[in-house]
Amino acid sequence: MASILVALFLLPALTRQLLPGQKVVKSKALSDKWTLFVTAPSRSKLQGTVWLVLAIPGALLLSWLIKPELDLLPNPKENIMMVYTAFDEPLSVGAAKTQVGNVIEQRIAAQKQLGSHPAFDIHGSFCNSTYCLVYFYPEGSWDFPVFKQWVDTQIVQDLPDARTYVYQGTLLRLALPDARTSQLDLKGLSLPKLQQAGQDLLAHLIESFPGARITEVIPMRDTVARVEFTPKADTLAFMGMSQAELNQILVTLTDGAYLGQFYADSDTLPFYLKGETPEHLEQLLQTEVMIPNHGLHPLRSLVDTQLSLAPSAIYRTDREVSMSINLVPANGQPVGPFITQVKAEVAAYLAQQPEQNLFINYRGSADQLSGFLTEFFQMFLVSLLILFLLIRMALNSWILALAVMLSMPLAILGGMFFLKTVNYFAPQNLDIVTMIGFIILMGLVINNAILLASQYRSAIVSGLNQQQAIIQSTNYRMRAIYMSTGTSVFGMLPLMLSPGDGSEIYRGLAAVIVGGMSFSALFSLGFMSALLSLPMFDKQSQVKDEPETNSVPLLESE
Question: Whole-prediction pTM value?
Fold first, then answer.
């Protein structure tokens, strides 16, 4: 809106004040030669056909062939090294610290004493039952491969029953910690069979994708002790106690029986009745229970007990018991191709398994990427429709509006080509931010074709023939097209070329706009001249509902 106000009011006022009565002297020789050169496809049927084939279906096909790999979000790197050590079997927190965490810290201390470690400012670590995480903040400029090799060979080598992943942290790890994480859910079987199927599939995926970080969401084994109570039916019958009443007693003595809500001032709190927490199972069994008409009896007289192992947690997705696996692609690998490979590998693996009732579901980044691609395609089509209707209103011609829209494949090809070129120097995938750049590009690049189509229509209305109108519209609008394109390209170049931290976030978007605008400036004049030379764009097909203007010479001589 601000640029419209400046163009309509400020620039004319400044022109009257700063350039009063000045005559603009133009050198036409070079401009005329260039005009004749770029409009050559309009005077040769063969050239025109080649231009149209290459610029519409050819550009779309080539754009598809050279498009970068799909990704969900940019992966801007941070000056931090992460070392993730996953345990093959769950450990207690104390055991994890003793067997893994302390060992890693001792090795780091030994490397510091030897002075043979990469420079880092601070480091830290923490452990839980399934993994230990160590982080380093390197000092100054540092080399990730060198740092990774030091960690692999000196810090985490030969750790027992563990898998280690070394990767560089990202700037989005706190705001979007799961941006590159997908979940694979297994469901449809009984819990023991589901656990075994999850363990087998986890081992297969770890072997098939050695660089990826593939871990279980919760332990797929029975890892915690469980006390199973079996009622003594004869004793309960003699004492007139039902199993429901016995269950209520057991709940009260262990987890606590929920009685309702307790209101304290403005707070609402849950209210439980719970026995004193026993120190061991024998103390629990010796607890006496009051039974009406039978007095006090120890809990041992009512139940038999048995110790067994049970899952540490029950994981559910969509209200079904599930075993879930976290999937994180290898460092530098896009999410899209990784998930495609995982799906193919899982499908081939399950086809060889005897279980027919095992179902697989994907969530997280895999599901988000699929959903975004669907929404983006719909948004892209809506944007094209809105642009087409607006251009139709501006040009008052359906066929010219179509001509303007057909200039877009060249810009899309330019965006894809520059993305591919940037990818040779720095990793650049086709992520969400980059895709949005194509929508922005549509609104920018369409202006060039609108300028040509509008001038072409005015020339036709003024009485020029088709070839004369093409030459005049190109000659008159060429300077404006090159100037507007140049400002857009040079404005975006710093974003595309900047090597600073976080540049991955906007580099793809800038490359799309720079490439699309550059291709539009280089090839849109030739393409539009070839397109407008078709018989359907001749003056007989134009609706002459505009007042005729004075005829203007095609190419003025000096």
Answer: 0.75
